[in-house]
Design a protein that fits this description.
This protein is an alpha+beta fold. It contains three helices and five strands, in the order E-H-H-E-E-E-E-H. The N and C termini lie far apart (about 35 Å).
């Protein structure tokens, strides 16, 4: 059963700025995939990102021989958190480049810490 409640999108760090630098067709594709996620669905070109835990997805958009990716997390709270957007530069293989993967891991870890602290602070305010 689909969750019909639309979730908010939170752009972390420079992810929105990077996305806005992508070609228009790529921005439209990524925007569509994120809007599907907001409605509890998954676009065909979104896939779980392995090695980062449940609820972390990667949107893959191809344009003029180039590949663009956006990574978002959706099982950490009420919102969808866009962690990173980048153009894949490697000409061989489909793996996410290590520097981008390290950045995503770092941002995901920081997000989890921030959300845990916010939850702890909120509990302290209700006492």
């Amino acid at each position: 059963m689909e969750d019909r409640r639309e979730r908010g999108i939170r752009w972390l760090y420079d992810s929105k700025k990077r996305l806005l630098s992508f070609p228009k067709d790529v921005r439209i594709q990524i925007g569509y995939a994120l809007s599907e996620a907001q409605m509890g669905r998954k676009a065909g070109f979104s896939k779980p990102m392995s090695g980062l835990g449940a609820g972390v997805f990667e949107i893959v958009a191809d344009h003029d021989g180039d590949t663009y990716r956006s990574v978002y997390a959706l099982k950490l709270g009420e919102d969808i958190y866009v962690l990173h957007a980048f153009q894949k530069k490697s000409t061989t293989g489909i793996k996410t480049p290590k520097p981008d993967l390290d950045l995503i891991r770092s941002r995901l870890g920081r997000l989890k810490q921030d959300l845990a602290q916010a939850k702890k602070d909120a509990k302290g305010m209700t006492k």
